[in-house]
Structure to design on (181 residues):
C-alpha cells in the first residue's frame, strides 16, 4: 500500500507530520478540529495503520483496538510533555518501552529491488515500530522540534516538508470563523 494513495487532500494532510508516531496520534477523533475517530474496528485499524506505516497487509482483530488506542494516547501525552519540556510520565514511558520490546516487522529486499516485509504483519509488530519511532523522536535531538499547529491542532516536527503550515492553518481558521459569523 502506498502510504497516502487514495486519500483526499484534507485526509492526507493529517499524515504528513514527518514521523509515524505522530501520524498515529492523528487517527483519533477531535471534535474541536472536525476530525473523527478512524480506528473503530479491525478493518479500519488495518487500513489506517497501513496508511501511517506504509505496511500492507496488516492483520488486525477486535482485540487489537484497545492496545492501539493506549499507545496512541501515550504518544500524544509524551508529545505534550516534550513540547512543555517536562519528562514523559512513568506510565507513558512504560507503555512505549513495552510496545517497543516486541519484535518489529522484518524488512527484506526483494529480487526486484523493492523493500518489503516478510509475511503478514500483525498489530503488535506495528505497535513496536510506532513505539520505537516515538522513543527515537522524544529521546533524540528532534524532540526540541515537536510542535502543535495552533490552527488545526496537528502535531508535527518542524520543519516538515509538505506537512502542517501554521500560518496557512491560522488563515484557514480566520476565514472559517468569519464565514460562520
Amino acid at each position: 500500500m502506498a502510504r497516502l494513495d487514495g486519500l483526499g487532500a484534507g485526509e492526507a494532510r493529517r499524515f504528513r507530520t514527518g514521523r509515524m508516531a505522530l501520524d498515529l496520534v492523528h487517527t483519533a477523533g477531535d471534535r474541536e478540529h472536525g476530525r473523527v475517530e478512524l480506528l473503530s474496528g479491525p478493518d479500519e485499524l488495518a487500513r489506517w495503520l497501513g496508511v501511517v506505516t506504509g505496511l500492507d497487509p496488516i492483520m488486525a482483530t477486535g482485540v487489537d483496538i484497545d492496545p492501539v488506542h493506549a499507545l496512541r494516547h501515550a504518544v500524544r501525552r509524551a508529545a505534550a510533555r516534550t513540547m512543555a519540556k517536562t519528562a514523559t510520565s512513568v506510565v507513558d514511558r512504560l507503555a512505549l518501552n513495552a510496545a517497543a520490546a516486541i519484535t518489529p516487522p522484518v524488512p527484506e529486499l526483494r529480487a526486484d529491488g523493492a523493500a518489503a516485509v516478510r509475511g503478514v504483519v500483525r498489530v503488535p509488530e506495528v505497535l513496536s515500530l510506532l513505539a520505537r519511532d516515538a522513543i527515537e523522536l522524544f529521546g533524540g535531538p528532534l524532540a526540541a522540534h515537536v510542535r502543535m499547529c495552533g490552527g488545526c491542532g496537528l502535531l508535527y516536527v518542524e520543519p516538515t516538508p509538505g506537512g502542517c503550515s501554521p500560518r496557512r492553518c491560522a488563515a484557514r481558521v480566520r476565514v472559517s470563523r468569519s464565514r460562520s459569523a
